[in-house]
Amino acid sequence: MPGRAGERRIQFQARNGLIYIPALVNGNHVTLLLDTGAALTAFSMKIVPAVNTDSRITVDTANGSVPAFRIPVAFTLGELDMKDARCSFRRSVVVGNFKLGEADGVIGLDVLSTFNSATFDFKNSVLVLDDR
C-alpha cells in the first residue's frame, strides 16, 4: 500500500509484545528491535565488528555494564526493493556485545526523532514515518 509523498511505510512483525523490523547492516540482512524507550541505536558486535577506535564507552543495562564503542555505520530499515518502504541512514551508533534476544540491534529515538512523526499501524503491521 503506497503512502503519500514524504512518507515511508516500513513493514514490521510484532511478537511477544515487541516490534521487529527487517534491515540491512554492513551488507547483512538482520532483524532490529524498535525500542521507543531507547535513546540511542545500538548494534551487536556480531553484525558490526569492533574496529580500532578511541570512542570506547560503557553502557549500563538492566544486567550490568557493557563495554561498547561509538562507530559510524550505514544501515537501511525496511524492504530494500521498495523505495517508499525503506529508509537509509549513516550515523554513529553504539556497538557492543549486547544480548538482544531475537534481534541483532535496537533502533532508538535518535533515529525515530529524525522524522516529523512515527505512527504504528498494528492492523497492517506497518510503521509509518513522515519525513520532516
Largest sheet: 6 strands, mixed, barrel
Per DSSP, what share of the residues sits in E-state strands of 2 or more residues? over 45%
What is the string of helix and strand elements? EEEEEEEEEHEE
Counted beta strands = 11
> Helicity, in percent?
under 10%
Q: Which stretches are poorly predicted, pLDDT < 50 over at least 5 residues? A: none
Counting DSSP H or I runs of 4 or more residues, the number of helices is 1
The whole-angstrom Rg is 15 Å
Descriptive labels:
132 residues; mainly beta; 3-stranded antiparallel β-sheet; 1 helix; 3% helix; 56% strand
Describe the structure.
The protein is built from one helix and eleven strands; from the N terminus they run βββββββββαββ. The protein has one helix spanning 109-112, and strands spanning 7-11, 13-15, 18-25, 28-34, 42-44, 56-61, 64-78, 86-96, 105-107, 115-121, 126-131. The longest helix is centred in the last third of the chain and has 4 residues, at 109-112.
